[in-house]
Specification:
The chain is built from three helices and 18 strands. With about 290 residues, it is α+β, with helices and mostly antiparallel strands. It is flat.
Length: about 290
């Protein structure tokens, strides 16, 4: 463990010991129901199933009450503000990621110390002037949007990037003109666990079918498909490249080989196992090699 991790653990132990042990915590009551499941003759109770509905008013009220109990407890920890100030001081230093090059441009992520997300900068020469290309902290006023995927086109003129909202696995892909710093009209929705792999005047990506309204965060990850998006066209016109309807639980991702001759397809089922398929991009009759 590094020094910061050790310090945080010590802070947690100190905070627990320092709290008034005699003070009783009045936890909000959690309603129990009579829900059960029958597993081959064995009845298993599931009294808190109602909490699985994260969109219900009842669940929202339960979370609100739990948060209040937690906040009340934490607010009484002695020296809490001093500890907070100490941690901020430790973490408040400039941070820089490893720079990378694409075509004739150089890119680097930098954080001034306490920014929630690092900012992407770009320059055309090692000793050139940097310009801000993307600041994820400005994507939303409440800080709920984050940069999840980034890919620069082979000619260094375009940047594909994916945004996640409120920590969701769902992503939305946008494309930015690197020179003008403006987003184009290209917009891809219902993307999940996907890269952005450029090829000629577009890119490959994988997505899932649009979920039913209200089930965006509770549906299964099934029927993953690989598409090709041509720049300047609407998503509805994207070309379906690969799917496997007989095994809907398998997810797919894709990337283009360095030679630009092959499409590499990576199937996997959740976190169990993986495989590799290889297909010639320009040969429509070619079968994938598994």
């Amino acid at each position: 463990m590094n020094k910061i991790q050790i310090f945080v653990i010590m802070v947690m132990i100190f905070a627990i010991i320092s709290c008034n042990k005699k003070e009783k915590i009045n936890y909000p009551e959690t309603v129990k129901t009579n829900d059960t499941d029958d597993y081959f003759g064995t009845i298993v109770a599931d009294p808190y199933r109602w909490l699985e509905d994260d969109n219900s008013a009842e669940t929202a009220e339960w979370v609100k009450q739990q948060n209040k109990v937690t906040s009340d407890f934490l607010s009484k920890i002695p020296y809490r503000e001093q500890l907070k100030a100490k941690l901020l001081k430790i973490w408040d230093y400039p941070k820089e990621g490893a720079p990378f090059r694409k075509a004739d441009k150089y890119f680097v992520f930098r954080n001034n110390g306490l920014q929630n997300q690092s900012v992407l900068y770009c320059k055309t020469a090692l000793d050139g002037t940097e310009t801000e290309l993307l600041d994820p902290n400005k994507l939303s006023e409440n800080g709920t949007k984050s940069l999840s995927t980034l890919s620069i086109s082979d000619d260094g003129k375009l940047m594909g990037y994916a945004i996640s909202t409120a920590g969701s696995d769902w992503e939305e892909i946008f494309v930015r003109n690197i020179e003008t710093k403006e987003d184009l009209t290209d917009n891809i929705k219902w993307v999940k666990f996907s890269g952005i792999s450029w090829y000629k005047d577009g890119f490959y990506y994988n997505r899932y079918p649009e979920p039913a309204k209200g089930a965006e965060l509770s549906g299964q990850n099934i029927n993953s498909k690989i598409y090709y998006h041509k720049m300047g066209t609407p998503q509805i016109n994207d070309i379906l490249i690969y799917e496997n309807p007989s095994k809907p639980e398998i997810g797919f991702s894709a990337s283009v080989s360095d030679s630009k001759k092959y499409l590499l397809i990576y199937p996997s089922e959740s976190t169990s196992g993986n495989a590799l398929y290889v297909k010639e991009i320009e040969n429509n009759k070619a079968q994938e090699i598994k």
